[in-house]
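We close this part of the discussion by returning to an individual protein. The sequence in question and its C-alpha cells are set out directly beneath this paragraph:
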Amino acid sequence: MKPQNMSSRKVILLFPEAADIIKNRHYVDDAMFSTDTPEHAIRLAREVSQVHSAGGFEIRNWVSNSQQVLSALKEGSMTEKNMDLTTGPMATEKVLGMCWCTKSDEFIYKIGWNRFNPDLLNGCRRITKRQMLQILMTIFDPLGLISHFLMYLKVLLQEVWRAGIQWDEQISDPLHEKNFLSWINSDHRRYSTFVAFRVSEILDATEAADWHWVPSKQNVADDGTKWETQPDLSSKSRWFRGPDFLYRSEAEWPKSSSKSMRTDNELRSSLMIHHLSPDSVINVADFSSWKRLNNVVAYVHRFIENCRRRRTKQSIESGPLSREELYASEGFLFRLAQREGYNEEVVLLTANCKNTSDNVLPKSSRLYKLLPRLDERGVMRMRSRIAACQYATEDAKSPVILPNDEESGTDRERH
C-alpha cells in the first residue's frame, strides 16, 4: 500500500490536472473533459495517457470536435466520428448514452421508433397511457438540455393520470377539451382563480349548451400549430371554411364519448371547519377568586362522576377534594378558556398532536411566535427559553397560554 500511495502523491504533484480528470471525470471506462483551447486539450490528453500507461493501462481512442487535437494525438482518420447509440458505419461507441456529433459539435437525441406499432405512429391507432410513458422514458436527457420540450409530454401524462385512464386504455378524447367542457358545465367557483375567471367570462357571453366537442383530426385550430408539412391556408381550405361537419345538420355533429362531465383538474384547494360555540356554562364573573372557581368546578365534576358510579354500583367519592380532582378541574378551566379565545389554534394543534417539534400554526396567528404545544391534559402551553433548565418547574418552563378579557369575551381573574 505504501508504494502505491507514494505513486499517487507523485502523480498529483507532477500532473495535477490529469490526476483530477482520472479521479473525478472517469465514468466506468470513459473519460470526458473539455478545455478552452486545442493546445490545452492536447496537453491534458497526453498527460492522462502517460499516467495510465505508467499503471499498465492503455488509452485506445480519443474523440474530439477539433481536428487539430485528433491530428496531434495521431488518431488516424480525420473524418467525422459520431458517438451514436445506433449501429452503422459512423457509429463508434456509447458515451453515457449520449449521441455526440463531433463534426457539428451537437448532441443528437434519437428514439427507437421501430419499437412501436406503425399504426400508432401514423395516427391510425390511439395511444395508451403505457405507451406515452414508454416514449417519454426512451428519451435519455441526463443534462436536461431538452427538458423544455419534454415538459409538455410530462404535463400531458400528468393529466392522463389525473383523468383516471387505465394503463392499456386508449386515450379517446383530447384531455384539454374534456376539461374545458367539464369546467363550463359545473360550478366554476370550485376551480382555481384563473379557471374560474375565464369560465365566468365565457358564460357571460355564451351558454354552456353552445359548446361542443371536436375530435382532434377535425380541429381546425391544430392546423396553425400542429403540423409536419406546410399547412393548406388557401381560401378553400378548412382553415377559412371550418370543419366539414359544420355544413351538415347538428344531429350529425361529433358526439363526445365522455361519460362524466366532472374533472378534478385545477380544483380549488379548500378546508372547511364547522365549529359551534355555545355560550359558556360557567360565568367566571360570579366567583370572587380562582380558588373558589376551581373548587366549584371540581365538585361539579365529582357529582357527575358519582352519578356514573351509582349506575354501575361502585363506591362514590366524598369528603374534601383531592389533589387529583383539583388538578383535573384546573385543566378543564384552562381548556375552556383557550377554546373560547383561541379556538382555531386549538383545532390545529389537536389535529397535529403527533407533531411536537414544528410550529403548525400559520404566521398570521397571534400565537405563532409563542411556539404553542398541547400537554398531556390538552392544555396549550408556550415554549420558553428555559425549557432545558432542570431546576425550573413545568409551569415556569412552559407557561399556560390564557386569553385576555377581550379575546375570551369574559371577565377573568388572571392566574
Q: What stands out?
A: Confidence is low (pLDDT under 50) at residues 1-6, 76-92, 409-415. The chain has four domains: 2-108, 113-162, 214-254, 284-408. The beta strands are 26-27, 30-31, 82-83, 99-101, 106-108, 373-374, 380-381. The longest strand covers residues 99-101.
